Amino acid sequence: MKKLTISCLMAAALFGGYASVGLAQAANAAESIPAVAVDRQTQVEDALVSIFENLTLRIRYDYIENLNDSRGFTAGRAGFTSGTDDLLQVVQEYTVRKPDNALAPYLPALRAVNGSDSTAGLGGFPEAWRASATDPQMIAAQDAVNDQLYRAPAHKLANKLGLVLPLSRAALYEAGIQHGYGNDPDSVKKIAERASAQAGGAPAAGVDERTWLLTFLQMRRADLLNPANTASAAEWQKSVGRADAMITLYHSGNVDLTQPITISVFGKTFQF
């Protein structure tokens, strides 16, 4: 299972995986998405994740924080964590691309703490991560691991379910960043299974996709409020606003994502 992140370092990408934030510090302000050379679907997917993870439309490759949520350090565009293997994969990928980098010396410690909440041996790692975050090879490493672990599985699952609406596919990707694609009860795959059971099947079986999507969003909200992994409960319950924001987007009728999107969450408003 993945983790929760809504970065406390708001002032500092589109992304961050699982954090708590002082809601009083989140000003009611609008922010515009920067111009990027990507398709609309990718733009929306990345924007949603960045908003929910880091309260910004800018991809936070430099984000890193210990959220004390049983997953060690949470870092980067997708909230990669030292306790759930993906942060280790980023540093390994970065080291393949650039062997002599400031994070490579931490590989033994990252392997040792993988699967736990420990940060033993990682003194100085946050500073090294931030210093490395502007390196094009580090950015490329984060993008590559994100695509491998989250974007590609989201597309595969969406195709299996028969999802064609852009909002459906974006919702699956956004949820997968937080819930992961494993087989635990809190995974996006299991949430989708429960949605299909509730809706009478998946769109691939002829069920109306809008009906299925709303059911999925509601099931995801219920999981945030009462996750099977009790270690995630406190942080995930704080993040229920991201599910509420997705449900509000659904009710706006903009399921094709062709119209401008306004997202209000955790006391801040974003338009893109």
UniProtKB/TrEMBL annotation:
Record field: transmembrane: none
A Gene Ontology biological process term: carbohydrate metabolic process
Signal peptide: 1-26
EC number: 3.2.1.132
Gene Ontology CC, one term: extracellular region
An example Gene Ontology molecular-function term: chitosanase activity
InterPro entries referenced in this protein's UniProt entry, alphabetically: Glyco_hydro_46, Glyco_hydro_46_N, Lysozyme-like_dom_sf
Coiled-coil features, chain-numbered ranges: none
Key words, A-Z: Glycosidase, Hydrolase, Signal
Alphabetical list of Pfam families matching this protein: Glyco_hydro_46
Protein name: Chitosanase
Gene name, Swiss-Prot/TrEMBL: csn
